[in-house]
Design a protein that fits this description.
- Helix content is 45%, strand content 16%.
- It has 303 residues and is α/β, with parallel strands linked by helices.
- A five-stranded parallel sheet has the order 2-5-8-1-9. A two-stranded antiparallel ribbon has the order 3-4. It has a two-stranded antiparallel sheet with strand order 6-7.
């Protein structure tokens, strides 16, 4: 049964990232939904720790790219190098060939390098010198993004933000969690590796289970009402695309699976809606993100 193993995975992640159960749950949801995750927050709040712990607890190959202003597309996807002994070009894969890739501070890289990463995320493959190379499966990108007001950032355009299924913030730990860290009883930043609770084959099986979670017609009506509401030009400057709608439903399915259910409820949709919509929907009044999501939920009251 997948349920006990998923519970252990979530519990282990919560022991590593103290005081952030919602962020841990949403990161796991994004992975099970076969999407990619964007984390927008200040440095030092645990973004790298979450990515590394997620890879370790699931036994996945992990790599990290520090995005800088001089990073080139070839530094991400790889390059072809002429091998004189063989008298031909050989492809040398870049760090993107991993099962979990942490793209750290992605908005510090120039747009061309950002595009190389985001294209690979969408296609699950890279093309170099006319040859296509498949990325490993499963393939999960966690990108971190510093606040736009910080020096040296290149904000991701809306069309590229849409490649991320979910966007979350970690924020500062609460008082109890921070005290545990200061006393040394927390595990954040621990140097020792975590023992895997599952493996790549388990994750692929869970992703197939997510696709089988039932969404009844009434639930689809609710999702469609949210999509229509987000496209009201009197309320929002940008709305949810059909791809975002599919992502919302898939994330809700993953949330239900983690809860041990084989069907989706409106509560599952509401639980994942903020992280699916926050980087896609903008209100006419330029309200904060939470106010925008609250207004969106008002457009489709659940029965």
């Amino acid at each position: 049964m997948y349920r006990p193993t998923l519970v252990r995975v979530e519990e282990t992640l919560n022991r590593v990232l103290l005081g952030k159960p919602e962020a841990v749950r949403l990161a796991l949801v994004c992975l099970l939904a076969n999407g990619h995750l964007l984390i927008e927050d200040l440095p030092g709040v645990g973004k790298t720790t979450l990515a590394h712990a997620l890879a370790q607890v699931l036994g996945l190959d992990y790599r990290r790219i520090q995005f800088t202003s001089d990073l080139l597309p070839g530094d991400v996807v790889g390059v072809s190098v002429f091998e004189q002994a063989r008298a031909r070009f050989e492809f040398h894969p870049g760090p993107i060939f991993a099962q979990v890739l942490l793209a750290d501070e992605v908005n510090r890289a120039p747009p061309k390098t950002q595009s190389a990463l985001l294209e690979a995320m969408q296609e699950h493959q890279v093309s170099v010198d006319g040859r296509t190379h498949d990325l490993p499966q499963p393939f999960f990108v966690i990108a971190t993004q510093n606040p736009a007001e910080q020096v040296g950032t290149h904000p991701l355009p809306e069309s590229q933000l849409d490649r991320f299924l979910m966007c979350i913030e970690l924020g500062f730990p609460d008082s109890a969690a921070e005290r545990a860290l200061l006393e040394g009883s927390g595990m954040i930043g621990a140097s020792g590796p975590l023992a895997p609770e599952a493996g790549p084959a388990d994750l692929l099986a869970w992703q197939r289970e997510v696709a089988a979670v039932v969404a009844r017609p009434a639930l689809l009506d609710y999702v469609q009402a949210l999509l229509r509401g987000s496209r009201d030009p009197a309320l929002f400057r940008s709305g949810l695309s059909p791809r975002a709608g599919l992502g919302l439903l898939q994330a809700a399915r993953a949330y239900a699976l983690i809860d041990g259910r084989g069907f989706v409820t409106p509560d599952d949709v509401r639980a994942v809606l903020p992280s699916v919509a926050i980087h896609r929907v903008a209100s006419r009044e330029s309200q904060p993100g939470a106010a925008t999501i609250a207004r969106l939920l008002e457009c489709a009251p659940a029965n």
